[in-house]
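Archive entry. Fields below.
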Amino acid sequence: MTVADADEAAPVSGTGPVLSLGAVEKRFPDGTRALDPVDLDVAAGEFVSVVGPSGCGKTTLLRIAAGLAEPSAGAVAARADRLGYVFQDPTLLPWRSVRTNVELFGELRGVPRAERRKRADAALELVGLTDFAGHRPRALSGGMRMRVSLARSLSLRPELFLLDEPFGSLDEITRERLDDDLLRLFAAERFAAVFVTHSVLEAVYLSTRVVVMSPRPGRICGEFTVPFGYPRGEGLRYDPELNRIAAEVSACMRAAAQ
Amino acid sequence: MNVRPLLRRLPAVLVAGAAVGVWYLISMVVLAEDRRFLFPPPHDVVREGFLDGDNRAELLDALLLSAQVASLGLLISAAGAIAMAILMSQARWLERSLFPYFVVLQVTPILALVPLFGFWWGYGFSTRVLVCVIIAFFPILTSTLFGIRSADASYHDLFRLQNAGRLTRLWKLQLPAALPHIFTGLRIAAGMSVVGAIVGDFFFRQGQPGIGVLIDLYQSRLQSEQLLAAVLLSSLLGVLVFWFFGWLARIVVGGWHESADEPGVKG
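PREDICTED_STRUCTURE:
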């Protein structure tokens, strides 16, 4: 069962990018340039990773795409009504159960109770947490909390899914498992995804396209297409071709840091 | 039966036993017999204060009155302070214009105000309650305000992603997040409200006596057994309200917030 079964809403109609950033800039009030003009288009079915050193404006870029921050200049066009967003922290409400946490987005959007419960349960099944629906977040491990956070966005059946270093604070084994979960979900749902990370290997492993950002003020200084299809499996992580691309991406990042 | 909760209380019980021992030591050994009236031994306090029917009735009536004054004051204070904190969190200008004066009210010694209130409104029940309202208001106001602001910016972002307005955020995010802090404030305020009811009593000599009036009276009559009994009862009242709010906090937020865990106990 996928979340799609619970919601037959039409996918994004028409063609063209789901998210389109045109010459987006960000300057903070104190004059710091966080982002130099950035152009980025993401189409449905594309998984774009943004890699770059800490403080290069990756998160700012994502917040602008989500409408959480205003660009100082440039244009943002998101043709997605249903927007998924995963923060660096799971940001679960500790007083709610896992299930009602997953229901939150639907609740805020006025989805009727029975309907959003159905979607939440479907999303929890996708991330393998059905048995924990009644628990409070504090009873869960860090990796499980992140899965709940993923399920919360998935329950919307997002057309655009923005992820801000979601697995950065997890141990490597948990992180790899969640990467594989995310790949599985992407293969099933084919939303448009923007994934911010500072791990080059993770970016290449997950994405159809990797975008490299320079140190602050951030701008896009390299783009790489990853030619593997989906579903992708564990074995791909050690594929020589994938590692060759990762090496190129790393070299590009290092060159930008000079 | 599980003995672990009992074992956990054992140290506190031992301390209580030791305190009674020290008490006996002082009244029976340290004090000469002609000065023993200053600090009579525990069994005399129990006999005079609690076993004598008339004395007990007098003490318990007074205690009940003080408890009523303190709880009504706390209730009014809690309603007012929480409402005020919510308003202040929604309108900065309100906080900027009023908060300094709540600070002034808080730092003005309540003892300086009581005669004034009595002068204006007499020394009846409602004036006694007013003293408790004033003394309990500030801790609830500040802890609620702090609690409402305690929700992290990323949580506000989470709500804003789905276009939730400020009232939705207040109701579904900020107030639940504030609950543990509100309980902390209530716990402090409850203790202060009891103190307010008893201290205020020293000025309220007319009408039905509260426990503070009795303390004053026993002291002037050198009835030290009853005086000590009254002191014990008033601290018992304080402990009771403190314990009550701890219990309430465990019921309401214990499932998700660690502040409601018992001190010194993990998990």
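CURATOR_NOTE: The radius of gyration of chain A is 18 Å.
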